[in-house]
Amino acid sequence: MASAQAVQEAAITGEKKKLWGGRFTGATDPLMEKFNESLPFDKRMWREDIRGSQAYAKALARAGVLTAEEAEQIVEGLGKVELEWEAGTFKIVSGDEDIHTANERRLTELIGSVGGKLHTGRSRNDQVATDTRLWLYGALQDTRGYLADLIKTAIDRAELDVDVIMPGFTHLQPAQAVRWSHWLLGHAAAWQRDDMRLRDLMPRVATLPLGSGALAGNPFGVDRQFIARELGFIGGVCPNSMDAVSDRDYVLDTLYFVAVHMAHLSRWAEDLIIYSSGLFKFVQCSDAYATGSSLMPQKKNPDALELIRGKAGRCQGNLAGLLAVMKGAPTTYNKDFQEAWQLMFDSVDTANDCIRIATGVLSTIRINPDRMLAGLSPDMLATDLAEYLVRKGVPFRETHHISGAAVKMAEDRGTTLFDLTVADLKTIHPLFEDDVLEVWDYNRSAEMRDTEGGASKRSVLEQAQKLKRYLGAEGL
């Protein structure tokens, strides 16, 4: 009687019945209403929720739960709901806890009681997992496109500036002469690995949980393979209904991909921040991606790069946050999992924005080859000096010490390696000949690194071609 009275009171007051409200007679704390709802952030999945529901209605008809006419009514009704969302006329009302509740409520308003048959055998547990997988699969396809554009931009800049020589650093100390293009393709190689990670992730995202019910499976014999095909799920169906509603690995995998890729973007940004500083002046960001100082008129700050570096930290925090949510949750669905969606949306949105900003920075950045050349110093050819004697048969461990002695001789004299004469070098080792002076050439130093993946012009151009072939093979 209490339940009947509650229903009657709801009808009198106009209160919307909740999908789960059959056994509840007391009112929900308004703060709890707000605390519980997810519609403010999951409404962005309105399209995916409608697609999943249309596919499920067709599956119910194939299973004999709905008539063909009822299924058609539901599919067409959902199409009208979709048009409202597209036009911006969909009205959210009190009681719309989430996108599933809102769409089903509006569907029933449009087509009547047959709309109530849509949820037969379905739970919001398998529904939300389906919606988020659909949304994520589409969003990550966009990510792959943005990432391909970034890699293509790196290839274009590398080929354009292939003759520019610059200092290479280890421990942020000047190390050896390399090409600007070699540095750039070094970052592109990391971005290629990121794309490989993303490619491998896609089938695990596009695996169908729908038809798992709340946890035990669907009692009406719906064809899950049919639903998977309808929705374009390339990974097939989740093999276990309990795991299907419990699994958020596809979100964790995505957050891991984002965290790693953002770490790569952050390191690239950090290099350019350093290279654009007044002490280096190797590069200058275009005005479109820099700002000035409110106090110092001379300043040009690489804010786009600094924001990428900062947002990388937030994305790493999102991954750690979701791992903390998941590690203590018991098997199957728990409301804790609702915390996954905002982290997912934030990480994917942030990555997509940062990749596009990085592409803009890279395509417009100006390099200063003269400053890069000025950043080279004779001591960066000390390894080349050691290698000169290696080619004359002296063991490298010995030539390393010999070259170090030459560096010390120059330091003691207050000069550079370039100022040492052949006679000076002969006092250190008798095998130094007049041709040792050829070592004092930065371009030659880079060209000597002509192995696959090295700093020579031929090798750098080969690296660019490999990246082009990879993108072509991936259809990007």
UniProtKB/TrEMBL annotation:
Functional pathway: Amino-acid biosynthesis; L-arginine biosynthesis; L-arginine from L-ornithine and carbamoyl phosphate: step 3/3
Record-linked CDD domains: Argininosuccinate_lyase (cd01359)
EC number: 4.3.2.1
Residue runs in coiled coils: none
GO term, biological process aspect, one: L-arginine biosynthetic process via ornithine
Domain of life according to the entry: Eukaryota
GO cellular component, one term: cytosol
Fumarate lyase N-terminal domain ranges (all copies): 22-317
InterPro entries per UniProt: Arg_succ_lyase_C, Argininosuccinate_lyase, Fumarase/histidase_N, Fumarate_lyase_CS, Fumarate_lyase_fam, Fumarate_lyase_N, L-Aspartase-like
Main EC class the enzyme belongs to: lyase
UniProt entry keywords in alphabetical sequence: Amino-acid biosynthesis, Lyase
Annotated GO MF terms: argininosuccinate lyase activity
KW Iron-sulfur (keyword) present: no
Domain Argininosuccinate lyase C-terminal: 380-445
Family recorded in the similarity comment: Belongs to the lyase 1 family. Argininosuccinate lyase subfamily.
HAMAP family named in the record: Arg_succ_lyase
Alphabetized PANTHER family for the sequence: ARGININOSUCCINATE LYASE
Name assigned to this protein: Argininosuccinate lyase
